[in-house]
Structure formats: C-alpha cells, structure tokens
TrEMBL record:
Keywords: Protein biosynthesis. Belongs to the RRF family. This is Ribosome-recycling factor, mitochondrial. InterPro entries: Ribosome_recyc_fac, Ribosome_recyc_fac_dom, RRF_sf. One of its GO terms (biological process) is translation. Residues 73-234 form the Ribosome recycling factor domain. Pfam families: RRF. The keyword GTP-binding does not apply. SUPFAM superfamilies: Ribosome recycling factor, RRF. One of its GO terms (cellular component) is mitochondrion.
Length: 238
C-alpha cells in the first residue's frame, strides 16, 4: 500500500525510467499555482509571490512528490506486465518466535525464468512452511511448489481477464489510496499553516490557497499516471 510502502531510491535504469516518466507527466506545482493566480483577475498578484520562502508550502510539496514517487513504485510493483520479484519479497512471513519479517529477509528470492520465481530457504528452513502459507494467502493468486528448502512459483501468463482486473484495481483501489494520502498532506499542512500564521490571516489565506491548488494538481497528475498504466495493461501481450 502507498501509505505503508518504503521509498526505494535505487540507481537501476528501470526505476529512472519510471521517475523520468512521472517527471514528464508532472508540471511544476508552484508554477501551476502562480499561473492559476495570474488568471484570476480578482486575486492580488502577490498571493503566490513568496511560496519559495513558505516552509509549510515547500514541505507539503516535498511530501506530495514523495507520494507521487510511491504511486509510480506501487504501479510498477503490482501492475506490470512483467514479473516483479518485489511482490514476493514484500510478503510478510510469521516466524516461529511469533515475529513477522518480509520474505526477502528469510529467503533468497530470484527469477529462475521469466515466468518462474524461486525462493531459497537454505538459511532459514523452518520458515518455509509459514512462507508457503503466506504466499497462498496473498493477493498474487499463485500456488508455490516445494522442493526441499526451495519454493517455486509458476507465474500464470497475462490473460485478458487478469489484465482487465488489474486495470480496474489500478483505477479504483490504488487511485483512492493515492488521493487519500494527498488529502492527508493537505489537511496536515493546512493545520500547520493555521497555527504558524495565526496572527497573520492574510498569509494563512495565501498558504491555504496554494495548498489547495497543489492538492488539485497532484490529483490530476495521479489520474494521468494511472490512466497511462491502465492503457498499457489493456494492450494485447505480444
């Protein structure tokens, strides 16, 4: 989930590609706010003049950018036409001592072939039973096969029905979670603004307008990013 995910900023070409794609889709939030302000004849020109020095706005902008990165990562991880082993690495496994750890910490997860995931439990053989159960109960809809201290998962080919379901999930669940995260950033920042500018109502008003504009712009970008991914999912697999 977006709110529970951990940002992994790696240097791989695939990650750079998605972040670059996100950057292309995004417009400058501050620039967007300034442009919108200029188009409103009734709004004073100075409404968005000091955003660069406004810590509330700048911190909110950083949080929005972080959530947008998480959105791209979530789509890459769960709604890709290719097998992404991170879907398996992130599955939580309950150990004998009652603690839970991600699968990546109790087994070596690799791709044996383009449609087969291999999980080696040689270093933690006692965890294989609960790991197998956790995989079966996950949303991946796969059945692992065991050979000694190794689990194998044959990933089913991408059917039309599965693509349609994934596209529906992307438009529904992921988009709702993204919007919820953006709205929380707006609400938290608005409260900080009210407290920080309690004696300066004009500054509080300017900040609130900027935050609201940023929120709407982020929601539009999120819609665009997800719609692009839905189109990719619904294409015929070559």
């Amino acid at each position: 989930m977006i709110r529970l995910a951990v940002v992994r900023l790696t240097q791989s070409a695939s990650r750079r590609q998605f972040i670059q794609h996100q950057h292309q889709l995004s417009t400058s939030v501050v620039g967007y706010a300034k442009k919108k302000a200029e188009n409103k004849k009734k709004s004073p020109p100075a409404v968005f003049s000091n955003l660069d020095d406004n810590t509330v706005v700048q911190n909110a902008l950083k949080e929005i950018q972080r959530v947008e990165t998480l959105l791209v990562e979530e789509l890459t991880r769960h709604f890709s036409l290719k097998v992404d082993i991170r879907q398996y690495e992130d599955i939580m496994v309950k150990l004998e001592n009652g603690k839970e750890k991600p699968l990546s910490m109790v087994a070596r997860v690799t791709l044996k072939s383009p449609l087969m995931v291999m999980m080696n439990f040689q270093d933690n053989p006692t965890a294989i039973k609960t790991a197998k159960l956790a995989i079966q109960k996950s949303t991946l809809n796969v059945t692992p096969q065991q050979e000694g201290a190794v689990l194998y998962v044959n990933v089913p080919p991408m059917s039309k029905e599965r693509r349609e379901k994934m596209a529906s999930d992307a438009k529904g669940r992921i988009l709702n979670e993204y919007k919820k995260a953006i709205n929380e950033i707006y609400s938290t920042s608005d409260k900080k603004s009210s407290a920080e500018f309690s004696t300066r109502p004009d500054e509080a008003k300017k900040t609130r307008e900027a935050l609201l504009t940023m929120k709407h712009a982020a929601e539009q970008r999120g819609n665009l990013i997800i719609e692009e991914r839905r189109k990719q999912l619904l294409k015929q697999v070559v």
